[in-house]
Amino acid sequence: MSNNILDGKRIAGEIHEEIARIVATRKTEGKKIPHLAAVLVGDDGASQTYVNGKIKACKKVGYEYTLLNFPASISEEKLLAQVDRLNEDPDIDGLIVQLPLPEHISSTKVTEHISPQKDVDGFTNLNYGRITSKHPGLMPATPYGIVELLKRYDVMLKGAHCVMVGNSRTVGAPMSAILSYQENATVTTCHIYTKDLASFTRQADVLIVATGKPGLITGDMVKDGVIVVDVGITRIPTDANERGYYLKGDVEFEEVSKKARLITPVPGGVGPMTIASLLLNTLKATRLRAG
Ligand code: GUN
C-alpha cells in the first residue's frame, strides 16, 4: 500500500484490539459486558452488509449482541414499540436502527425514540446538541470515527482549514460542528447549493467529502499536500442485472491521491472507522449505565 494512505481498516483493527482487552478485563472483574442491539428493517442488500459488519465486530471484541430483522411491511407503530422494548431492556447498552427505513416509516421519529443513553449512533437531538458541549454525550459515529482516524495519524486539526462537502444530518452537519467546537478547526461547509465548489475545495488543508456523488472531487479541485477523507461509498454495477458491483467513493482516487499527503481508500477508509466508533460508543454507554 502506498505511504499516503489513511488506513481506516488498520486503525479500526487496533481499536478492536484495545476494546477486546478492556472487555476481557471487565469479564475478570465481573463487570457488565457491553451488549449492542441492531434493528434491521427490510432486505436492502447494502443495509444487510453494514449490519452484518457491525455484528461481526461485536463478536470479534467479545460484546454481546442482538440482531432483530423485521419485514419491510412492519408498521411504524410496531417498530416504535420494539424500540421502546429495547430501551427498557436493562441488558441492552447500545441500540441502533439501520437507516434508511421504508418510506412509510419516519426515520426521524424512530431515531428520536431511541433512548439518548443507548443511542450509540449519536443520531438523537440530545446527543447531536451535546456536540457543542464541553462534555459531549455519544458522538455521531461516522464523524467521531473520522476525527479518531485523523488524530491517530497525528493530523493537526486545530487552526486547520477543514472543508466539509455535504451537510447531511448523519455526517456533514455533525462533522462540521465537531471540527469547529471540539477541535477548533476553521470550517467551511459546502453542499449542493454551493456555487463554484472547486474554489472552496482548493483552499482545504483537510477535505472531507460525503455527498454520495461518485467521483465528484477531481485532481484539479485540490491543492498539493491536502488531506482527504472520502465518506462516499456508491455501488457501481458491473453487469446489467446489478448482480456484480464495485464500490466507488466521492473522490477520484487515482488523480487526487497524486496530490494528497494523506487520503482514505474506498473501501477500507471511513467504513471500518464508523464501526470502531460504534463499538467505542457502546463501551461508553455501558460504563455510563453500569459502571
Ligand atoms: N445507514 C448508513 N449509515 C448508517 C449508520 O451509521 N447508522 C445507521 N443506523 N444507519 C446507517
UniProtKB/TrEMBL annotation:
Keyword Coiled coil found: no
Domain Tetrahydrofolate dehydrogenase/cyclohydrolase catalytic: 6-121
A family per Pfam: THF_DHG_CYH
One Gene Ontology cellular component: cytosol
Pathway in which this enzyme or protein is active: One-carbon metabolism; tetrahydrofolate interconversion
Catalyzed reactions: (6R)-5,10-methylene-5,6,7,8-tetrahydrofolate + NADP(+) = (6R)-5,10-methenyltetrahydrofolate + NADPH; (6R)-5,10-methenyltetrahydrofolate + H2O = (6R)-10-formyltetrahydrofolate + H(+)
GO-annotated biological processes: L-histidine biosynthetic process; methionine biosynthetic process; purine nucleotide biosynthetic process; tetrahydrofolate interconversion
InterPro entries: Aminoacid_DH-like_N_sf, NAD(P)-bd_dom_sf, THF_DH/CycHdrlase, THF_DH/CycHdrlase_cat_dom, THF_DH/CycHdrlase_CS, THF_DH/CycHdrlase_NAD-bd_dom
Assigned keywords, A-Z: Amino-acid biosynthesis, Histidine biosynthesis, Hydrolase, Methionine biosynthesis, Multifunctional enzyme, NADP, One-carbon metabolism, Oxidoreductase, Purine biosynthesis
Gene3D superfamilies named in the record: Leucine Dehydrogenase, chain A, domain 1, NAD(P)-binding Rossmann-like Domain
Residues at which NADP(+) binds: G166, N167, S168, I192, I233
Subunit and interaction comment: Homodimer.
UniProt record similarity statement: Belongs to the tetrahydrofolate dehydrogenase/cyclohydrolase family.
Protein name (database record): Bifunctional protein FolD
